């Protein structure tokens, strides 16, 4: 067996030294000496002073662009570290037995890979991109709280060190053991990486004596504080620091996604911090939050996944924002369905907190609770599908340019479609029970977190590289690297989907020999992904010194299609001020294929997105109340004739933790009919058949009546069952008509009022 600490330590050292040598070499060749190549003492002293000044500046800066670059650099370093873990995992899986690493080492790699990539790679990179470009996109001078912004970043490096301290101490112990006896350095030789899995499930995480677990929990808590601080800053900046002319109606789609992402983080990460504190108390002070005699081990799963699944959307939504921002630039069209993508983003933000228990379908949770989570887990696919359809429609008949950013966008759509569809399968309880512990889940998850998410990170780095550095990268290498990472991702994770479908268990270093060839194919694909990441890093570093300088104020030719957005306007002004350039004007311009005016929304009114949403919401609520009152008449009749048992309403109250009272359930039913269903109708009415609004309402009511019929069925049979179904259907039709007719009346009245105000 190989020594994991020595191998990974050497690999990271070689990688870091290679980057440093490459940086120094390119920097030196880019600046020839003035006296024939001999460096003078004065030049050395000047260079040392300049380095000291630069270090001090980077350590104390509060400029949003500097903080953004620090975030990106930190996230990239963490990603390379976590990627090294992944390569070591895939190397072990080349052969069926655990003959490279021990099973415990494999578990440790699995644990640290997951935590490093999810918390210290993806989120910092997206926060970095947001820090750099978001103020430029909204016309702000800086982030709302510059010093707090800097604090949010500088909390992350110590957090990562604490989480990965086990490996660092192991490496130090191996080095010290060369010169000191083992007894003198016993602590360094016994400290090891955490191997309980990245989900840290109790009771194993409570009972395992490894002190590194405590450091890991503290590091995760610190990272949660950093994320919460950053989220508050983004929300405040977007809400209060928008420049003149930037309203909710024309706010760029990336800022919308960062706003929703920050809102999710603001609710999710404090709960994770609380759960981590409870776990620390259980480990060190003998509390019983997750002990059998206390809250129970399953309580940890509830708390962890209440953070864990919103975390998936914290990682995913910024990528979709970048997709919606970058893709139109390379197909010559404005983003199709801007307003509906905004609605879908808001919908994902809300629904993300209602699906956590689909990670727990194999536990002993109440089947009725599982059923509700299954329904929401299936429904949450709809907002994501809206995004995909709008992206595809944006490309339809567009003037596509096969640049590296476009290749990555198109590849990201492909991986997300497959990853998303397989996620819908896993949302179904019987399918999840069958595949929960297999590589099918690994393939599904990684098609998103190694597909669309890193793809759009890299696409953003290419798209904004001229803006950030003033130079061009190697475009041929970039296209090759983009194709390579797309190819590697499909090979690796489609293979995992197949072997998972055949039943191969995940999270195990040892597997049956008949799966060896498939595992080798997946490992080769993983190596291709790793190679493409190194090519990207090489291109970014070398191009910083050797890239061709940008000689135009419109590097991507965005003025041709009237897509010269605010950050490029800022870039143009900077190039004019710094290099006295003339603004670049294209020979011809054309209107984008999409209409110039943004969609007016479901209410048919004008105004900002926020105003439209609020106006639609209150009109729909009134319509929902009228519809629920009409529906109640039919349901009351069904109760009187004996085909509907009122006790079933008590289950509604019981599901939300209240006493199983039919009266309380009826009140909750009224609230749901007034709030929940009208909002769902607004979100999906454009995708339902029907020429008139009330026809669409009847279709919607028919669809939701099936859910009511299943939920309130209490064993009726024969004529009672026929009567039950008839009353359910007619009552829901009454609801649909009441909802849509009232909504249509209020909408027409609102439109007439606004026209009269405009005329006066």
UniProtKB/TrEMBL annotation:
Give me the Gene Ontology terms describing cellular component: membrane
Q: Which GO terms describe its biological process?
A: aerobic respiration; electron transport coupled proton transport; respiratory electron transport chain
Q: Which UniProt keywords apply?
A: Electron transport, Heme, Iron, Membrane, Metal-binding, Respiratory chain, Transmembrane, Transmembrane helix, Transport
One function term, GO molecular function aspect: heme binding
Domain Cytochrome oxidase subunit I profile: start-end pairs: 52-561
| Chaperone as UniProt keyword | no
Task: Write out the transmembrane intervals.
Answer: 6-24, 67-84, 115-138, 150-172, 216-240, 260-281, 313-331, 340-359, 371-392, 404-429, 441-465, 477-505, 517-538, 618-643, 663-684, 696-715, 721-746
Protein's cellular compartments: Membrane
Q: What is this protein called?
A: Cytochrome oxidase subunit I profile domain-containing protein
Q: Which Pfam families match?
A: COX1, DUF6789
Species this chain originates from = Haloarcula sebkhae
Stated membrane topology is:
Multi-pass membrane protein
Family the UniProt entry places it in: Belongs to the heme-copper respiratory oxidase family.
């Amino acid at each position: 067996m190989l020594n994991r600490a020595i191998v990974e330590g050497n690999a990271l050292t070689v990688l870091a030294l290679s980057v440093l040598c490459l940086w120094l070499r390119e920097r030196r060749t880019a600046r020839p000496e003035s006296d024939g190549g001999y460096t003078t003492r004065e030049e050395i002293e000047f260079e040392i002073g300049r380095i000291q000044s630069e270090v001090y500046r980077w350590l104390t800066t509060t400029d949003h662009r500097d903080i953004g670059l620090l975030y990106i650099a930190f996230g990239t370093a963490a990603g390379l570290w976590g990627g090294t873990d992944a390569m070591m995992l895939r190397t072990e899986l080349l052969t069926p037995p655990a003959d490279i690493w021990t099973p415990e080492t494999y578990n440790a790699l699995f644990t640290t890979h997951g935590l490093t990539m999810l918390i210290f790679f993806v989120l910092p990179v997206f926060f970095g991109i947001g820090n750099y470009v978001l103020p430029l996109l909204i016309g702000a001078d800086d982030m709302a709280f510059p010093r707090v912004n800097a604090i949010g970043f500088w909390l992350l490096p110590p957090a990562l060190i604490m989480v990965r301290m086990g490996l660092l101490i192991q490496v130090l112990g191996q080095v010290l053991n060369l010169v000191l006896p083992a007894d003198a350095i016993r602590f360094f030789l016994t400290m090891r990486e955490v191997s309980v899995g990245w989900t840290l499930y109790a009771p194993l995480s409570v009972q395992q004596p490894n002190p590194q677990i405590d450091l890991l929990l503290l590091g995760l808590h610190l990272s949660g504080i950093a994320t919460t601080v950053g989220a508050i800053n983004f929300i405040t900046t977007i809400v209060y620091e928008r420049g003149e002319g930037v309203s909710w109606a024309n706010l760029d789609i990336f800022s919308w996604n960062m706003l929703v992402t920050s809102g999710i983080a603001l609710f999710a990460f404090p709960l994770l911090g609380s759960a981590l504190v409870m776990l620390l108390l259980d480990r060190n002070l003998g509390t019983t939050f997750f002990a059998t005699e206390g809250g129970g081990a399953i309580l940890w799963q509830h708390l962890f996944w209440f953070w864990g699944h919103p975390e998936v959307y914290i990682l995913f939504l910024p990528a979709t924002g970048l997709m919606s921002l970058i893709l139109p630039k390379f197909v010559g069209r404005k983003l199709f369905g801007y307003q509906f993508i905004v609605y879908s983003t808001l919908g994902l933000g809300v629904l993300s907190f209602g699906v956590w228990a689909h990670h727990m379908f194999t536990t002993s949770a109440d089947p009725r609770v599982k059923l509700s989570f299954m329904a929401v887990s299936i429904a949450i696919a709809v907002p994501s599908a809206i995004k995909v359809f709008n992206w595809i429609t944006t490309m339809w008949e567009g003037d596509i340019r096969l640049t590296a950013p476009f290749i990555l966008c198109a590849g990201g759509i492909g991986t997300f479609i497959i990853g998303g569809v397989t996620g819908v399968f896993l949302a179904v309880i019987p399918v999840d029970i069958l595949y929960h512990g297999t590589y099918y889940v690994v393939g599904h998850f990684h098609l998103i977190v190694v597909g669309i998410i890193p793809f759009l990170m890299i696409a953003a780095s290419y798209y904004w590289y001229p803006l950030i550095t003033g130079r061009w990268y190697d475009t041929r290498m970039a296209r090759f690297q983009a194709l390579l990472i797309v190819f590697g991702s499909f090979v690796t994770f489609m293979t995992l989907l197949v072997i998972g479908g055949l039943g191969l268990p995940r999270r195990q270093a040892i597997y049956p020999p008949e799966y060896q060839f498939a595992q080798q194919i997946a490992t080769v694909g993983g190596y291709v992904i790793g190679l493409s990441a190194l090519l990207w890093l090489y291109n970014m570093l070398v191009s910083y010194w050797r890239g061709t300088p940008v000689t135009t104020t419109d590097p991507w030719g965005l003025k041709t299609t009237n897509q010269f957005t605010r950050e490029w306007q800022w870039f143009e002004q900077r190039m004019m001020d710094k290099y006295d350039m003339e603004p670049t004007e294209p020979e011809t311009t054309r209107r984008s294929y999409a209409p110039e005016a943004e969609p007016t929304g479901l209410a048919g009114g004008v105004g900002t997105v926020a105003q439209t949403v609020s106006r639609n919401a209150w009109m729909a609520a009134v319509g929902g109340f009228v519809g629920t009152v009409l529906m109640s008449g039919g349901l009351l009749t069904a109760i009187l004739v004996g085909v509907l048992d009122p006790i079933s309403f008590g289950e509604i109250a019981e599901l939300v933790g209240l006493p199983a009272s039919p009266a309380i359930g009826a009140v909750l039913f009224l609230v749901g009919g007034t709030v929940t269903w009208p909002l769902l109708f607004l979100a999906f009415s454009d995708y339902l058949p029907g020429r008139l609004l009330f026809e669409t309402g009847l279709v919607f009511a028919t669809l939701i009546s099936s859910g009511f019929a299943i939920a309130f069925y209490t064993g009726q049979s024969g004529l009672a069952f026929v009567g039950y179904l008839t009353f359910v259907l007619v009552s829901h039709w009454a609801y649909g008509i009441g909802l849509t007719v009232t909504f249509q009346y209020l909408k027409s009245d609102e439109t007439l009022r606004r026209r009269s105000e405009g005329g006066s």
